[in-house]
Amino acid sequence: xxxxxxxxxxxxxxxxxxxxxxxxxxxxxxxxxxxxxxxxxxxxxxxxxxxxxxxxxxxxxxxxxxxxxxxxxxxxxxxxxxxxxxxxxxxxxxxxxxxxxxxxxxxxxxxxxxxxxxxxxxxxxxxxxxxxxxxxxxxxxxxxxxxxxxxxxxxxxxxxxxxxxxxxxxxxxxxxxxxxxxxxxxxxxxxxxxxxxxxxxxxxxxxxxxxxxxxxxxxxxxxxxxxxxxxxxxxxxxxxxxxxxxxxxxxxxxxxxxxxxxxxxxxxxxxxxxxxxxxxxxxxxxxxxxxxxxxxxxxxxxxxxxxxxxxxxxxxxxxxxxxxxxxxxxxxxxxxxxxx
Length: 340
Ligand code: PHE
Description:
By secondary structure, the protein is an alpha+beta fold. Helix content is 40%, strand content 19%. The protein contains eleven helices and nine strands. The strands form two sheets. It has a seven-stranded mixed sheet with strand order 1-4-5-9-8-7-6, with helices on both faces. Strand 6 (243-250) and strand 7 (253-262) form a beta hairpin. Helix 1 (2-18) runs parallel beside helix 4 (53-90) and helix 5 crosses helix 10. The radius of gyration is 43 Å and the shape is elongated. Phenylalanine binds next to strand 8 and strand 9.
């Protein structure tokens, strides 16, 4: 038995010393020290020994077990270290390597203009609201003081989707939706897409963008309208830009005005962009018609208001000195990337 023990010890130590992986090492442990292991098998025969032999043999067996356990532990430690070192080497990062630049997107010139306008009007206390692009006759015309067969309906070539449904030709429908839902004081802007059956050319597109503005409160006057719009023009185009109010007509405002600014290209001297006049029209506005207020349940004897509708595409074009509105919709990256 002593010989067997010595043999097991020798072969186990040899194998442990040569073992190259933690997994193989565990297999060795099971093979020698496990329940069905070689050493365990010997220990089970201990009972067959005589009483004199037993203590010495037991002592030896225990020493062998201890020695093997220690050898296993030492080998395990060493293997862990080499495996860790190998992993660290393999996963090493070269922090001095130049980074790969990410290509980031940019905002479309129309979004840039819209965001700037929202900032300006929000700073004056306006809310931003959204409205549907498909509207009913009620919101786009009737409630805006444009009954059926009113000749002013022809001011805009509207796309009809059915008897009663149309693509909105102006964001003014948003005024009505807000006035129906809220009590004054109201201050809101609504930016969005509008649609008209226009031929495409350098200044026209069947899809374009507007931002509607509406203020309703007690004692709102034409002075508030002028002050608010002048402030907005100066923030967008600079304080040297002059603003001109021309009498005009819209069914939903009375009085109505069209607002011109001195041409950003020639400063008012007259050029190709302003067709020699020195002025560029940027928006329509006016005092909300009493019929419109009344239709929304707001008493025009108590409240008054002003509204305006500004063309965002025109603004984007004149501000960035773009010559053709079609550039805004062609999605040519060479054009769009200039705005980042
Ligand atoms: N909705 C008008 C247009 O599209 C602009 C406008 C809005 C005029 C609000 C007056 C008041 O031409």
